[in-house]
Design a protein that fits this description.
The protein is built from 13 helices and 12 strands. The chain is an alpha/beta fold. It has a domain at about 1-190 and about 220-245 and about 280-300: Rossmann fold. Strands 3-2-1-4-5-6-10 form a 7-stranded parallel β-sheet, with helices on both faces. The chain has a 3-stranded mixed β-sheet with strand order 7-9-11. A two-stranded parallel ribbon has the order 8-12.
């Protein structure tokens, strides 16, 4: 198994690379990553030291560069592509949607076309539950739920999903799509809710919570998501999308209060800020299709996962400080400052 993993230096991609190299001794992974602010090559330094030049190869580049993608595929005799590469921060997409269209839509199209043209047998596209839009107080998203994205980010991911579907329907290309609920765990960049709250709480800073804090998300520990992607790669039906969830629906405010309690910090640190535009109220995933066809079942409860996550960030404060560039901090301060 020779995989081209795009975005492998990001949060989920990093965890996937570690998992695949450990579980599949025959696997060779080529990691193509643009190394934007949320991609950190340091994440995989142990892999480079142990497997660099043999089972692991790093290429610095853009999935929108067809020539570079083709070179990676032909040089390393790739037999499957797993596409994690994406701009993924909703707030950033509201501030400027251009990078999201360029990477998530045009980049995915370039990657698909190049892989298809060169005869790569399998292509797994990693998407999100946000393409479905929002739910009311009951019900869950299924793979048959109509796509109805509400943010520029989710619209760009929905567009990529439709391009993937079209490549299967038009060319018969073996594309599968994974759609997952909110991830958390080691190596997550501190723009997302859980690591951001951990960082701010540990510093005794104000914790910005959108609206009334009652937006509900289904949380899945990152290794369970990686398991779903692995199963899709190995067993997925071409042309099919698969939902993955963690059986852990929780309002954002409950997650924030759990973090504060775990760190021994007061709830007075919570600061409610103006809700962001187009903020989906509730997500919940029906992953029964993945259970039946792939044998998927989440292995980590939210209570176990949040404890592991808190412990990892406590033990890796140097990593947390390193990934926070001045430009990132300036963006976050401005964004939340405008909502107070």
């Amino acid at each position: 198994m020779r995989l081209l993993v795009t975005g492998g230096c990001g949060f989920i991609g990093t965890n996937f690379v570690y998992m695949m190299l450990e579980k599949h001794p025959e696997a060779v992974i080529v990691n193509l990553d643009k190394l934007t602010y949320a991609g950190n090559r340091f994440n995989l330094l142990p892999v480079e030291r142990q497997y660099g030049g043999s089972r692991y190869h790093f290429i610095h580049g853009d999935i929108g560069n067809a020539e570079l993608v083709a070179h990676a595929i032909t040089t390393h005799k790739i037999d499957a592509v797993v596409n994690f590469a994406a701009e993924s921060h909703v707030d950033r997409s509201i501030a400027d949607s251009t990078p999201f269209v360029l990477t998530n839509v045009l980049g995915t199209q370039t990657l698909l076309e190049t892989a298809r043209r060169l005869g790569v047998p399998k292509f797994v596209h990693v998407s999100t539950d946000e393409v479905y839009g929002t739910l009311g107080p009951t019900g869950k998203f299924t793979e048959e739920t109509p796509i109805a994205p509400n943010s520029p980010y989710s619209a760009s991911k929905a567009s990529a999903d439709l391009i993937c579907r079209a490549f299967h329907e038009t060319y018969g290309y073996a594309v599968t799509i994974t759609r997952c609920s909110n991830n958390y765990g080691p190596y997550q960049f501190p723009e997302k809710l859980i690591p951001l709250m951990i960082l701010k709480a540990s510093r005794g800073e104000s914790l910005p919570v959108y609206g009334d804090g009652m937006n509900v998300r289904d949380w899945i520990y990152v290794t369970d998501h990686c398991l779903g992607v692995e199963l899709t790669l190995l067993k997925g039906r071409p042309g099919q999308a698969y939902n993955f969830g963690g059986n852990a629906e929780k309002p954002n405010i409950e997650v924030v209060k759990t973090i504060l309690a775990s760190l021994g910090k007061p709830e007075s640190l919570i600061s409610y800020v103006t809700d962001r535009p187009g903020h989906d109220r509730r997500y919940a995933m029906d992953y029964s299709l993945a259970q039946r066809e792939l044998g998927f079942e989440p292995e980590v409860t939210f209570e176990q996962g949040i404890a592991r996550t808190l412990a990892w960030y406590k033990e890796n404060t140097d990593w947390l400080e390193q990934v926070q560039s001045g430009a990132y901090r300036a963006f976050m301060d401005t964004w939340y400052g405008e909502r107070k």
